Amino acid sequence: MRPKNLKTKIFLDGSDIQETKTILSLLGFLDGQTTNPSNFAKSPETVERVKRDGTFDLDALYQAYKLRVQQISKLLPDGSISIEVYADKSTTAPEMLKQAREFNGWIPNAYIKFPITAEGLKAAEQAVEEGIRLNMTLCFSQPQAAAVYAATKGAPVGGIFVSPFVGRWYDKGVAGMDLIKNILKMYEQGDGHVKVLTSSVRTSEQFQYALALGTDIITAYFDAIKDWGTAGMPIPDVGTFDNSEYQPIPYEDLSLDRPCLDYKIGHKMTDAGLEKFVSDWNALIK
Q1: What does the domain layout of the chain look like in residue ranges?
Q2: Do 199 and 178 touch, CB atoms closer than 8 A?
Q3: pLDDT, tens digit, 9 for 90 and up, residues 183-234
Q4: Whose CB has fewer CB within 10 Å in the chain, the N or C terminal residue?
């Protein structure tokens, strides 16, 4: 059962139906799920299908992704389900929008994932006008989060998520939770239409730290959520955590009033994330 003092929404990061069922049973609730090409490719259902029948043709692959998303949506009819477009460095905004319109019709509770690139932000501006809910992904910097806010002005409160990836910063010896702190602080000057979805949460400590910071949403791997649930779903105090062994990320004093493409959008870690997603997806295609 959901703790009364839990303000943060809890999402599962993955495409494994059995994990969804297990977490629902353990917690008694689950607020959403985030899928992407990598976790779809690695899920047991997909691995077994490839082992049995070989790789997919493109239409069959999209049908398999659609079916998986629909299965998750049935388990979480009141939750938010993120579906990611295929995008590499050369994918244009119109190409992303075409996918977004199709994916948005798969389920009633879809949030479409665009990467935080110049083309992804252009796609987001148009998608907001069309009433498509978005999860802007592969965020690694505060300026990228500012650009997301600027690109999606006019969206309803909660209609947009921004997904800062903390685990990949910790892999590099950098305090990824500083990015969450900084974005939450920056967004205090805004209207609340963008919610901070702390992502790439790999450990129980990272999960509980994000809770302590008061992030709007956390999406975490199965083991991190399972550990939290097994421990009784504690809500720790922020003073419990010590990030001093990691390199800090300083706060930047940024206005949210600039055009979205005026911010420093490019980031090597965003590029690397795109390449990984593309590689995992393309490996499934004949």
Answers
A1: 9-282
A2: no
A3: 999 999 999 999 999 999 999 999 999 999 999 999 999 999 999 999 999 9
A4: N
Query: What percent of the chain is helix, strand and coil (3-state, nearest 5)?
Result: 50, 15, 35
Q: Which of 106, 55, 71 is nearest to 85 (CA)?
A: 106
CATH class of 9-282: alpha beta
Q: Is the dihedral of CA 10, 222, 237, 218 positive or negative?
A: negative
Find where tokens 């990467």 sit: 115
pTM for the model: 0.97
Q: Is 89 a catalytic residue?
A: no
Single out the catalytic residue among 113, 122, 181, 195.
113
Q: What is the per-residue pLDDT across 13-70, written as a single tens digit (0 to 9) for each?
A: 999 999 999 999 999 999 999 999 999 999 999 999 999 999 999 999 999 999 999 9
Q: Is 184 helix (H, G, I), strand (E, B) or coil?
A: helix
